[in-house]
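Exercise 7. Predict the joint structure of the components listed below.
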Amino acid sequence: MTEKKLTTFTLALSNLKSRANRTVGLIVLVTLLAAVLFGGMMLVSSIQHGMNSMSGRFGADMMVVPRGSDASAEGLLLRSEPSAFYLDEDITAEIAAMPGVKTASPQLFIQSLDAACCTVPVQLIGYDPATDFNIQPWIIGKMERPLEAGEVVIGDLILAEPGDEVIFFNQPFKVVAKMDATGMGFDSSVFMTMDTAQHMIELSRESGLLPGDVGGADVSSVMVKLDDGTDPAPVRTAIINAHLNTDVVTSSDMLIDISSRLSNMTLLIYMLAALIFVLCIVVLVIMFSVTINERRSEFALFRAQGATRKKIIGLVMTEAVLISLVGAACGILLASLIYFPFTTYIGDMLGMPFLMPTTAEIIGYGVLSAAVSVLTGPLACLPPARKIGQADTYTVMREN
Amino acid sequence: MLLEIQNIKKTYTRGRTFDAVDDVSLTVNEGDFVTIVGKSGSGKSTLMNMTVGLLKPDGGKILFEGTDLFSLTDEEMSKIRNRNIGYVPQGCGLLNNLSVIDNVRLPAFFFETPEHSVKRARKLLEQVGLQGFAGHSPTTLSGGESRRVAIARALMCGPKVIVADEPTGDLDHETTKEIMELFSALNKAGTAMIMVTHDQDSAGYGDRLMIMEKGKLREAGSREVTKEV
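Solution:
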């Protein structure tokens, strides 16, 4: 202790240690600010990434579902809420023949059970490899050949790996690929060809595991891709008029809805961050003013020993920077501990497409949050520090 | 001439306006031991603090080795204070979050000293009789020990003059004697002393006794010397 060099840093550190309660209080305040900033930026960015992923790779211009199932369809797509609803299979060919429709591809949704018959309770999605444009783009690069009977591709959040065997309705399926994260309900889904799905339904019905209303020739939805430049509104009207038992969900509807919710949430998060930033600055200014006032005789003594005003301001500012640095680091750590282990839960809770930003972006948000948080200490400390630097030393010493 | 005070003046307004220091002049040479006595509120401490450049006078000049202190920048004046003027304040002004030796080294932190500060601080602690206390906290020291640490700190940068404001104010007779003998030894070694005191025993150690009354400073007459001392 006695041999170490006396520096502004060691003096500041020693002073902070000697006023431990005050120091911890100030650190907690900056921690809160950094956590809100970092957590808020991560949240907004994750939703933005999910939206980008969804709009870039969703592929379908519209999705035809049974009347009254549009909310369930959105829930399935965005939040992987298990859903099961069915249309007559003939509808696919009829929609495909409509003017303006480029491709129509059926999908079949089956909920696996949370029971001994199934490895995990998830959404099983059957698709038609011949017409599909919605699922297969996600699999390209993950497997080089078409999916065969008895094989499945799993979403990013399913706890299995290629080569594993999974059981659904007492039937084994071989996992041949695992998708990258999509930020959508696909992450918690299992994909198989329509033939495999229908075969599974037949066998399950025989064993009494499936409800009786699922027909072997049913489909749950029809994904529709329009010709380039086609206005979706008249096509939508035509589909609903031709098939009164259907609803049409368009991707733009979903994106507009999500985008509006994201804007509201972003505004709320940034307003909260701004409020905490202002609160943090105000409380820190008060705290630093009180503390510096209490230490006026100490600073006066420093002046008497030959300290320049600059040196005293430097000492006080170093203390403020140290507090802010530790607070910023704690805040980012705290937000990370809350955020990273629970991203799936947070995404489900928000009901929006949710995809983690890239490592570089996460580092960028961390640096930005830290920079803003670290600035608060010196900013709040500067006015009282300048005041003590200008104070009449002798008066200060007499007052104390 | 080490220090020359020329007609300095300081006015305060506290309910009424009054001259705390009124047209005071004083010269201090190397090796002088000037003691200033006076009643509370007579302006002693105000004079002392202007003398070392801590308080700006409303009029007059203070020259340190011919340089007008108040014509200097903060950096220049701080350096003169750090290198040439050792200050022992009322009370001790020790920092409890630093060890005894770090308190002594403090002036060397403000302006780097050529000599290694730990080595010099140890030597000074030995000089004031506290060689075993380097790593102690100031909170464990007695009043007299604390005062000696404050003196060691004032000596850290090898000052030409020590300014002491009531250095024995709250000490018992024995401890007062120890402190004053220390000051006396430092003065004999060539350091000029300017000391403000209320204590009659302490005043006896100086070679020039000055009396401060209602902001005015004057040399004590021979009868006053006897009376004061």
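Discussion. The interface with chain A takes residues 45-46, 49-50, 52, 54-56, 74-75, 78-79, 81-83, 87, 89-90, 93, 95-99, 101-102, 105-111, 117-118, 134-135, 153, 157 of chain B (CB under 8 Å).
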